[in-house]
Amino acid sequence: MPRPRIAVFGCRNSGKSSLINALTGQQAAIVSDTPGTTTDPVKKVMEVSGVGPVVFIDTAGIDDSGALGAKRVERTKAMIKEADIALLLFTNNLVGLNEQQLIKEFKKNQLPIVMVHNKSDIVSLDPGVALELSEKWGVDVCECSAKSGDGISFLLELIQKNLHTFSDRDTSLLGNMISADQTVVLVCPIDSEAPEGRLILPQVQTIRDVLDHQAVAVTLTQKSFPLYMEKQLPVDLIITDSQLFGWVEHYVPRHVPLTGFSVLLAHYKGLFPHFLAGTPQISRLQNGDKVLILESCTHHAGCEDIGRVKLPNLVKAFTKKELYFEIVAGLDPLPAQLESFALVIQCGGCMVTQRQLKARIEAVLEQGVAVSNYGMAIAYISGIFERAVAPFLTQKERD
């Protein structure tokens, strides 16, 4: 599953880097008494006891000054969109204007917050201050000392609590689509874009979810799938790579539900209604329109890359229009003028958390731009859009 991102914010010399080292039990971040040691956001993948693998984001001080300092603060604030939880450090029982403005930004972005009074080995947290912060902002407040380690265990408990509340870890990919002892057939192509010696993450996640349902997972390649169907072996649901939608459909009786891994992820991440409404925009594209492809992972792109090569070619062939495509990979900043795009197509988002994906899509929707995702766009182009989304609709919606 995607690693949750824990961003540490605070003024210069509030002990952000020291706190990360204390939480991880390693010298993961450079520590110095000189204010402004951390000049840009630094990301570290670490294993935290009781939490698991996470990405810590060590940010520059929110009180940085000067022209260069203003740019550093801007980059620090940009991490709000990436984070799944914010640790906001303060010392000496002082929560100034910088911290308060940051809390407002966290709240605006629905980002869980833990207020951390650091350096409590020097000045202890005033219980009155803690109560006031908790009541005013509705946040968890704790005190700790990154130097002595006091309070770190309690802070970890608060991190776990907030990650649990806002994560998608406890939801199920398949939900109530299947039950125990049913058979789910997964069609997984092995081509030049498939990782050497392993399956892609959505396929692995789906297999695990099928097993969690106490159901049967049958994993087939494109070559073996027709033989399986020809033998009329058990099948209650078929999930395929979106690139095979049109081909797989020919072998699947109408009464058997059929969908794709990317469509499954759209539903799992909570963005299905937006993609459902936005996908038909493909038919309304005009000459000169711009289409933005959001690819939430970073990888070497080959000649068969779905987002950079195949999908743009499919859209252009389907619309017969002269279109322009722009790619944004990973969690890189979105283009400044989102409203200039006629359509945004998001990948499945298997490498990012629900909150990160939602933040990006909401930024697009705020500009009135239609959104789709890889699987739903390909299903639409392949002429089986209604069938691919049907398993996720109520009977009323299907009718």
Describe the structure.
With about 400 residues, the chain is α/β, with parallel strands linked by helices. It has 15 helices and 14 strands. Strand 4, helix 3 and strand 5 (about 115) form a beta-alpha-beta unit. Helix 11 (about 305-320) runs parallel beside helix 13. The radius of gyration is 24 Å and the shape is globular. The protein starts with a strand and ends with a helix. Mean pLDDT is about 85; it is low at about 30-40 and about 165-170.
Write a concise keyword list for the protein shown above.
399 residues; alpha/beta; Rossmann fold; 3 domains; 6-stranded mixed sheet; globular
Brief characterization of the structure:
With 399 residues, the chain is an alpha/beta fold. Helix content is 35%, strand content 18%. Helix 11 runs parallel beside helix 13.
CATH second-level architecture of the largest domain: 3-Layer(aba) Sandwich
As residue ranges, the low-confidence spans are 28-38, 166-170
Euclidean distance between termini CA atoms: 35 Å
Strand tally: 14
Please outline the major beta sheet.
6 strands, mixed
Overall CATH class of the largest domain:
Alpha Beta
Class of secondary structure makeup: alpha/beta
Strand content: 15-25%
**How many DSSP H or I helices?**
15
Report mean pLDDT, rounded to a whole number: 87
- The run of helices and strands is EHEEHEHEHEHEHEHEHEHHEHEEHEHHH
Give the helix proportion (percent range). 25-40%
Global outline: globular
Rg, rounded, reads: 24 Å
Kindly identify the CATH topology of the largest domain: Rossmann fold
CATH H-tier superfamily of the largest domain: P-loop containing nucleotide triphosphate hydrolases
Number of domains: 3
Main β-sheet, spatial strand arrangement:
2-3-1-4-5-6
